[in-house]
Amino acid sequence: MAVVLGFIPTPVGFAALDAAAAEAELRGGPLVLVNVIRDGDEDDPRHAHAEQLDRAMERLHRLSVRVDVRQVRTDADLSSALLDVVEEERAELLVLGIRRDQEVARHLLGTTAQKLLLSAPCDVLIV
């Protein structure tokens, strides 16, 4: 069964990548890495550039399961774009990296993470 990773090119995003890779191997894959780009907000640091995606692929090259890397453009919210991929792939697991360095993040999840946790039709692993 598929594992979908909502990937952002940050240290916590790469930690989530490692966790997603391990889960994909355990479950027999594939691993679908998804980086969502919001139209009109291309300078958002959550948007992965080619060299960041190359770095991610370097970490995944030893996997025995299929790896699919996608950049999805949307004018909707990020969670909707990720949920579309989860449903399309019939994913068994969605993996997310959550930033822990913000004061508010210790008390509340961001709206994207909340929506994904409440709406995903599969298990969600938060790293």
Describe what you observe in this structure.
With 127 residues, this protein is α/β, with parallel strands linked by helices. The chain has one domain (3-126): 3-Layer(aba) Sandwich (Rossmann fold), CATH 3.40.50.620. Helix content is 39%, strand content 22%. It has a five-stranded parallel β-sheet with strand order 3-2-1-4-5, sandwiched between helices. Strand 1, helix 1 and strand 2 form a beta-alpha-beta unit. The protein is globular, with a radius of gyration of 14 Å. The chain starts with a strand and ends with a strand. The mean pLDDT is 87.
Mean pLDDT: 87
- What coarse outline follows from CA principal-axis ratios? globular
Number of DSSP E strands: 5
Helix content: 25-40%
What is the third-level CATH name, the topology? Answer: Rossmann fold
CATH evolutionary superfamily: HUPs
Low-confidence stretches: none
Strand order of the largest sheet: 3-2-1-4-5
CATH architecture descriptor? 3-Layer(aba) Sandwich
Number of contiguous helices: 4
Structural class assignment = alpha/beta
Write the element-wise H/E pattern from the N-terminal end onward: EHEHEHEHE
Broad CATH class: Alpha Beta
For the largest beta-sheet, the strand count, sense and barrel status come to: 5 strands, parallel
Range of strand content: 15-25%
End-to-end distance, in Å? Answer: 20 Å
Radius of gyration: 14 Å
> How many domains in all?
1
